[in-house]
């Protein structure tokens, strides 16, 4: 008897969870419908022209950039896009091991190998960069709770401190949707805490990116993200896009934002702002496009 009951309970719990999910979904759809009224095509054409000009101006300033976390999913794509757009005259990646690149485009990338436990010994690696991107991070499942805090809070903060001391003017931090230093979730709490610690360093310009779930092609290493993606995949695109963003869009948003002069000391880009700033013409359906048979 006990056995039969156990078997009945599992699907019941599943059903309850499902109907809760459907409720959330419907509510989200209603909210999204109001916001999604499209922007005029003319406006975005003009925007693109402006962006090209901004990029040109930016290039002519021969700036130097560093990337932390260039082996990660975002950092990798960011490095590639920075090289593709030739936005900087000096590109440095700072990491804990030397990488080998076979492509010609990477031949001028400067590599600084550091020990994150002794960053004070590596001040020169952080010297003289105008712009910095920090995409450093691990997960609790990879590094354990302590390891996660060590990397996502301590290494990130220390790197920011070194960058500031080295003269960095514009620091970009990859954070997360929901980052909140008073959150009871370790992940969101640490993200929120490091956001505000870095703010105290007082960069001339400080940009925080808070994307939702990042969509990329490395399913096997992130089962939870993969599942989420599967789940999103069966939901209306408008709902999914409120809670996730393709890595490529994130990276474009980072660079589109960087080339735009700003007089704001602190900028906070949420998932929606990242979508808006990172959309590429004609590729909004990237990854969903079906080739005709
Ligand atoms: C940037 O570099 C180019 C080519 O080396 C040079 O012609 C130009 O004067 C430099 N611009 C600035 C602002 O230093
Ligand atoms: C951002 O940059 C991409 C190219 O990297 C461009 O195609 C896109 O139109 C830009 N988005 C906006 C909103 O300017």
From TrEMBL:
GO terms for molecular function: catalytic activity. InterPro entries: NAD(P)-bd_dom, NAD(P)-bd_dom_sf. Gene3D superfamilies: NAD(P)-binding Rossmann-like Domain. The chain crosses the membrane at residues 12-32. Residues 69-218 form the NAD(P)-binding domain. Keywords: Acetylation, Disulfide bond, Membrane, NADP, Transmembrane, Transmembrane helix. GO terms for biological process: import into nucleus. Pfam families: NAD_binding_10 (PF13460). Signal peptide: none annotated. One of its GO terms (cellular component) is cytoplasm. Monomer. Forms homodimers during oxidative stress. Interacts (via N-terminus) with elongation factor EEF1A1 (via middle-region); the interaction is direct and competes with EEF1A1 binding to guanyl-nucleotide exchange factor EEF1B2, thereby inhibiting GDP for GTP exchange and reactivation of EEF1A1. Interacts with nuclear transport receptors XPO4, IPO5/RANBP5, IPO7, IPO9 and KPNB1 as well as GCN1L1/GCN1 and LRPPRC probably through their HEAT repeats. Binds NCOA5/CIA. This is Protein HTATIP2. It comes from Erinaceus europaeus. The lineage of its organism: Eukaryota, Metazoa, Chordata, Craniata, Vertebrata. The gene is HTATIP2.
